[in-house]
Amino acid sequence: MLALEGRQLGNYDVIRRIRVGGMGAVYEGRQRTAFGRRVAIKVILGNYASDPDMRRRFAREARTIARLQHPHILPLIEFGEEQGLLYLVMPFIDGGTLTSYLRRIYRPQVTGREPLPFNLHELIDMYLQLLDAVEYAHDEGLVHRDIKSSNVLLELPRSGVPHVYLADFGLVRPARQAEHQIGRPIPLDQVPGTPQYMAPEQTRGIVTPLTDIYALGVLLFQMLTGELPYDDPDDIKVIQMQLRAPIPRPSRRNPQIPPAFDRVVRKAMAKRDDERFQNIAALREAVLLALEEEQQEQQELQPDWPEAPIEQPREPREAHPSRELPPLDYVYSGPNEPQIEELPPDEDIAAATTLPDVTAEALSRPRPQPDYRSRQELRTIALPMPEPLTIPRRGRPPAQAHPAIQRITEEPQPPLRGRSSRQQTSGSSRRPLSLFVAIALIVIAILLLLLFAARSLNIGLFPPGVPLLGADPTVVVTIKARSQTLQDTYLLTAAPQVQTVDLGTRTIPARRLSASRSLTQTLATSGTRTTQGSNAQGRLLFSNHGLQPVTVPAGSIFTGTSGISVRLLTTVVVPPRQGDQDGTASATAQAINAGPQGNIPAGDIAQPCCGRPTQLQVTNPAAFSGGSNSQTIHIVAQADLDRARQTLLPQLEHQLEEQLQAALKSGEALAGTPTYQVTLTANPPLGSQADQVRIQLQVTASATAYNPTQARQLASALLSRQAQRALGSAYQLRPRSLSASTPTVTAHGNRGIVYLSVTVHGLWSYQISPQTIARWQQDLRGTSSDVAQTYLRSQPGVASVDIRLPFGSHNLPQQADQIQIVINDQ
Residue 242 maps to which CATH number? Predict the structure, then answer.
């Protein structure tokens, strides 16, 4: 596999590989322009990166995630291509996957970490968050097709329930397209999706929203038991099990799971899609009803305090309309002979996968009262069960309850009866006062013991809304709204070519400023040069008195009366005499030695030449000149120009910057330091012999002026738009929380364009409307504290819930105005 660690993909540095699959891998990375923000980078590797179908699927996943804005769906930061690699960038969620979370609960020795306690309410709360995400996707017309525990990411807070994110929309399909798709058989080893979570119809190429509901049923089973309902190393065998194998019960795998959840899993995993829950709302309601039934059974299983139960006539209980069938482990043999029978192990849930209709006769049968043994004991014995003394509970009628948290049973219960007091026979006035005090203390102690025991056992001794000793019945529910901090760095453009701020191109207007100044300075030259000595030069005249021409070769040496010798530089041909006129010719000669002594006077040389004393004469009609010794002279050097530049340029730059600052308008600033164009001239020019030089320095300054407030406002608007897309309209910016840094110039472009970098961060809080609060007050009337907690935590925008009940009360009041809901968004 191609190693990407240490490489750069676009604006991201790849740090390490998190996990790898058959078609790609997920890496941890750092975003360069966001102060090293941790991100997750999903990359297609190998031959899949060049496969056209895979590239279309990857692009479809990017478009799908970009349009989904939900707090429980992992958002998309960026989608790009680098060196032939396609990649998606998403926030880094460091809580791991739901798979690892369940391993810590059910198999901590595999992870090597501290085991997590089993908490049914916490697991259901996480499951409800996932249902919200899938329901939102279905409302947007999308089917996920690959819901599984490894595609559920968790953000673990310091306390409370983990925050759930649904990820990996690579197999998503439009619901409309799926509904009109005609299934056609395909090879089992080519079925897209994960076999352990695949609905039977999905193996035939049929994908609908009910396919996701089947996968959610599998996931619920896995969360409740830590195991998959169907699992085998051979994926084809797993698919065959999805098609034909009976549906297992979670309570058989995990004795801590109430049997009520068996019915939810059975209906969600029905082999036929028309027998499943038809939408997410129905599945959510069934989960909450099962949770409420479990809560009620826990209260019924608490031990009674009286020494001996008071016999009451047994009457059939009226079945609640929401009960579709009696508990799975009960089998009735007659109206007065309740028995508990263990079902065969291979009779989990076979071909009949829907919840059967319950006849009126079945509803009228009396339910066996619970014994105080474990569920495992109840499955293995068949004994008559005594009628326990129950604690009275008063609930509101089913018509007033919200469907998601409506109680499963609302039957009245016989009142709590205590021990009969002794009849005082006579003479109470004659009893000592201390006896009355002792009796009173004993009664108070018993009452306090009952109250504390009921509180610790999660039992309400008083009807909802009736606190102890007439205390204030108001319940205070404090809800902390979810908040999200966003931060990003934006690259903006300040251009003189635009007149208004443009959010789309991230451009703000700018102005081009320029100014010019010059200074002159005269300096003594510092350059020197040493000249060599020169040889004196002159001309020699040759006169021919003979009748034949005479040739004098170059290099011939002649010595004058001063003793200075000269050398003929060129060959001379002297013509013969013509008539009474001698033939003459002249040529250049040079003193043999350098120096001023070679400057011989005229006539210093006058003598016969060349061995012909009567025929040829040589003279120097003029003096020789130019002979000199070596010497050092002053010239204009580059150091003189540099010295003038160092002296004059700072003065000019300071003056020009002040001139540019004076030209700024109100609210404007210079984009960085100005750029300077320097022209330097010297008189005499560089290299000339001179003792002084006059240097002129001319400087032209240019700068771009822009408004920093406009840059910060543009960056703030970009972050607000990003928050709107990522969080949705329900999140509002917290007042005075948006802050933008001072713009920093990153580069200068042509024609005065300047590129600015601005970092912005802000805090957004979920806004819970008064209408929502009023609806919650109605929905929570008469519910238990645990159910109210689960219901509220499943609502959008709720981070945590704190419920303060009056002492001695377990349920919320029946009156909505006695439920005070306080929203804390700090």
Answer: 1.10.510.10
Kindly state whether residues 52 and 120 are assigned to the same domain: no
Rounded to a whole number of angstroms, the distance between the first and last alpha carbons of the chain is 47
Quick one: which of 555, 560, 544, 531 has its CA closest to 623? 560
- Number of domains the chain is built from: 4
User: Which is the catalytic residue, given 13, 125, 132, 146?
Assistant: 146
Phi then psi dihedrals of residue 531, to 5 deg:
-100, 145
**pLDDT tens digit string along 458-491?**
555 555 445 554 567 889 999 999 898 999 999 9
Q: How confident is the model at residue 609 (pLDDT cuts 50, 70, 90)?
A: confident
For residue 521, what are the contacts with CB-CB under 8 A and spacing of at least 6?
Answer: 644, 647, 648, 694, 695, 697
With respect to residue 779, please indicate whether it lies within any of the assigned structural domains: yes
What pLDDT is recorded for position 612?
75
DSSP string, 570-612: S-EEE---BTTB-EEEEEEEEESS-SGGG-PPTTS-EEEETTE
pLDDT band for 48, please (50, 70, 90 cuts): low
Token pair of 56 as six digits: 């279309």
Helix, strand, coil percent values for the chain (each to nearest 5): 30, 25, 40
Which has the closest alpha carbon to 808: 449, 470, 454?
Answer: 454
Element (H, E) at 328: none
In a domain, 173, yes or no: yes
Torsion sign across C-alpha atoms 119, 121, 125, 131:
positive
CA nearest neighbour of 454 among 802, 811, 781? 811
For the stretch 795-815, what's the b/e string if a residue is b when 16 or more beta carbons lie within 10 angstroms of its beta carbon?
Answer: bbbbbbbebebbebbbbbbbe
540-565 residue pLDDT tens: 999 998 888 999 999 999 999 999 99
Give the confidence band of 632 by pLDDT, cuts at 50, 70, 90: confident
Instruction: Provide the edge-to-edge strand list for the sheet that holds 537-544.
Output: 557-559, 565-568, 583-591, 537-544, 612-619, 606-609
> Of the ranges 216-220, 238-242, 364-368, 770-774, which one carries the lowest mean pLDDT score?
364-368
pLDDT band at 302 (very low <50, low <70, confident <90, very high): low
**What would the mean pLDDT of 293-301 be, rounded to a whole number?**
71
Whether residue 287 sits in one domain with residue 160: yes
Q: Does the annotation count 146 as an active-site position? A: yes
Residue 89 dihedral angles phi and psi, to the nearest 5°: -115, 125
Query: Rounded to whole angstroms, how far apart are CA atoms 124 and 219?
Result: 11
**In the chain, % of residues over pLDDT 70:** 76
The sign of the torsion formed by the CA atoms of 321, 325, 328, 329 equals: positive
Give a yes or no: residue 680 inside a domain. no
72 and 183 part of one domain: no
DSSP per position, 44-111: E-GGGGG-HHHHHHHHHHHHHHHH---TTBPPP-EEEEETTEEEEEEE--TT-BHHHHHHHHH-HHHH
Whole-angstrom distance, CA of residue 20 vs CA of residue 79: 19
Q: Please tell me whether the overall predicted TM-score, pTM, comes out greater than 0.85 for this model.
A: no
Q: At 743, give phi and psi (nearest 5°).
A: -60, 140
